[in-house]
């Protein structure tokens, strides 16, 4: 008699959910490659892969516009193509240059808000005879598992974010009212966990105030403190409720922009620069971005390296 071997626990990360879906859908058709991937800007990022035909490189990232999923998700091509020679946009997809496929099946994955999140798809180097209706039903169910996971995580994240915000508010810099260094470290930990659970993305911005020492020497520390507070106020007006501003020490500030695409992050950084210019606060800004497979610690290190390089090239108005 078969017996349960233990308690079934929920997935703790999006990657775990994606891996389970790949294992469940693979027996539906004997294809050489199954992939669950996220669409992030123009990147198609595999989250889970089951490969027996291609030697698919772990961590590979492809251009979304190069994949057959672009046309499939837009409703311009069929979900199931046993022979891609019969579907011109699949036959001519740029992804064929990376690995040749003669059979393709796929289904879009949407998040809890109904926005395109990614795709689940299968490839094979040979044409295959696939029962279309049965395969579409299985693909739909597999995509629905991911969508349900994302929707539940969004609801949980709302509650979690409110609790995290309350915890962060106890870790503030007394002069400026923004987070202190410990609050920043905690916010980074929280956002990294959110990236793993939901496949979101975030940007790290470093802000280094220029001219503070000169102002302290010429007009006194009260004037310098006033400038620091003005910088904090400007930064605080440029963020959403889910974002954070922190004073890391002295004249160094940091911002964490959660759930943001790379292109939007670039626009936000330029908006911050403009706000500082209008407030007549001279500061150096650098930033970096971490996607679904990225590390916020690495993003912070990259932004810091860019800041150091900027100072070497341009000097610093201390």
Automatic annotation (TrEMBL):
NCBIfam families: GGDEF (TIGR00254)
Pfam name, any one: GGDEF
Name of protein: diguanylate cyclase
Enzymatic class: transferase
Catalytic activity: 2 GTP = 3',3'-c-di-GMP + 2 diphosphate
UniProt cross-references to SMART domains, sorted A to Z: GGDEF
UniProt-listed Enzyme Commission number(s): 2.7.7.65
SUPFAM superfamilies on file: GAF domain-like (SSF55781), Nucleotide cyclase (SSF55073)
Matches recorded under CDD domains: GGDEF
Domain (GGDEF): residue spans on this chain: 200-318
GO molecular function terms attached to this record: diguanylate cyclase activity
Transmembrane segments: none
Lineage: Bacteria, Pseudomonadati, Pseudomonadota, Gammaproteobacteria, Lysobacterales
